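Archive maintenance. Older records in this collection stored only the sequence; we are now back-filling the structure field for every entry so that each record is complete. The fields below show one back-filled record exactly as it appears after the update. Entries are processed alphabetically, and Nose resistant-to-fluoxetine protein N-terminal domain-containing protein is next in the queue.

ARCHIVE ENTRY
Title: Nose resistant-to-fluoxetine protein N-terminal domain-containing protein
Organism field: Loxostege sticticalis
Length field: 673
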Amino acid sequence: MVPKLKYLFILVIIQTVNSNLIWDATYPAIDQSLHEEAIDPVLCEEQINYVITDSFLRLQFIDAGIRTPKGILDGNTVDLGNYHQCLGINRQLEDSELQGKYCLIRVPLNQTLNIPQLPGLTDIDEFEINEIKARFQGAHEINVGARRLGGIFNNDTSPLASLNLRVAVCVPKTCSTKQAIDSLLFNISAFGFEYTEEFCRVPNDKPWVAADYVAVVLLSLIGVLSLISTVYDVLVQFVLKNVVRKPIYALFSIYTNGQRLMNFTTGPDALNCVDGIRALAMIWVLIGHTFITESFYANPFDGIQVMRSPEGLWISAAHITVDTFFTLSGLLVVYTTAGKLSGKKLLQNLHLYYLNRLLRMFPVLATGVLLEASLFNRVSDGPYWSGMSDLVDRCRAFWWSTLLHMQNYMSPERTCIGQTWYLAIDVQLHILSPLVLFWLLSGSKKLAWLALAITFVLQLSAATVYNFLMEFPSSLISPNRRPDEMSNYMFKYYVNTLTRASPYLGLVIFNYACATALLSFVIYSSYPILQPSWDNQPLDSLYNSFIRPAWALGLGWLIFACVHGYAGPINWLLSLRIWKLPARLSYAMYILHFGLMVAVNSSAITPPFFSPEGLMFKFLGHFGLVFIVAFVVVLFIEAPCTILFKKLLNGVPKKEKKPAVEPEAAKETGKEV
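Back-filled structure field:
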């Protein structure tokens, strides 16, 4: 038995989760009806007869289609054929147009084919059969995760019983897969060959919808405004120097907004280390998602071994970095509000307190929703584009719940921009924060500490009771858990405001914890949980309840040490100016990165080989792309909207003293409070 076979289901779940989601978008990203309506058995027969007479054309269809996946014994069950070659087939016949159609089918190995014995064909050696069975025997131990995918393995007596191969076939557009395979290859019914069709693609099957036109018009309008505003700004400042410049006309000026964006001057009391922490946290998010956004791997067994090894914990523990953003958000809410408002003024200006946060987040969030619902579907294509089309369909169906910050409770499994579950929780906690801030700003330190302590204890107690009652697993990767338990973990624990609030609240109370030990413990404590032998529900519940407050505890001490001069070279590293720009772009990068990464990965024409070195190289490409797109969105959209909103909300009370944190540092992953 090969031990690494035990871990197949984890990586395959991560790779193919998008492909198993079905959404109810009114206008789907890929119009399957185009392929269904084109099926014409009579015309198909005519075209098949033509293909049979044209050897080169027949070879094109066969070459672009069905073949056995390479590396089955390393866990690869997918062969994607030649997508672009298939859809590129176009031959004008006398009375019809012959076009290629690309389909992906699932072929179960648990079937008996009535293949006649051919002369000269000897039986496979019994030792070879036993060797193959031994390679797959470990599948029994991971059948729970496999059923989540629709049954790669089950508890049948044969380890190959429910193994499904996913292979591509290329057929004429007018044909069903059965009619084409029967005619071009062999009579599948006669041999007892069984398969199920997963999807088919035809040329030009991504129709333009209202969201596409809105995106093109709106972005073009912003581009024109930016051009006019920039020309005006430059003309007034450098040519017509005596003319009084009107700031409203320079609102979309790339020159002025670029200067503001690249100005890294800070005040004497700025928390410079926060920029480094935020930037590094965003980089860790990108690294983690680089490893999990691939649709398939050519060697998933090797990937599972790496992800579950001590050396791979820096990858598998990357999800904890989201709690870094919660911690910083809780810190900055208190740090900036305390220098601006009293408890009484907070209540008097509560509507402005909320509007400031919501309006500052809206431009980038709305841009991300619009792009994911429209143009991201058009930037590329590939044999498994359904990974991207699923994201598009989600945004076309559930854009409203994301813009209302309700997505973690309103159909969380169908969230538009899936990673914004974090944003929803942050907004919900921000809405609740005045309940504690009032006492903190009232001037009484005893009341402030009492309010913080009571809130933290109540939240932590409620979360602990909830975790013990629900009996969640303690990791996104839990080999011995049923698929419904993993779904409950994701949608009832991982994106739940109650269970994720402790980092937001806990920083203020526990500033004096031992950061190094705590942060290391949080990362390496996940190692035993990742092993198949782990089965300890009480420790799972305790882990879920306290591991995130422990992370906030370590970060709290790190920030405290940096501010008070105890961190030495760590503070120097985190305060480098190189982190300023990534920190300012971090919010836009967070909103935009996942869709961009999925678009790149869904364009792959063959499963990539898993290796940490190769994926880190790919991470650099993802980082560069996301950084550039985020910079453009911030420069052209967020920056002018921020100035406009400040002018509209001029009723916000003036600060009594110079803020201790620069405006950009008062952002949760990039936003002012």
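Update note: Residues 264-666 form one domain. The two ends are 56 Å apart (CA to CA).
Entry marked complete.
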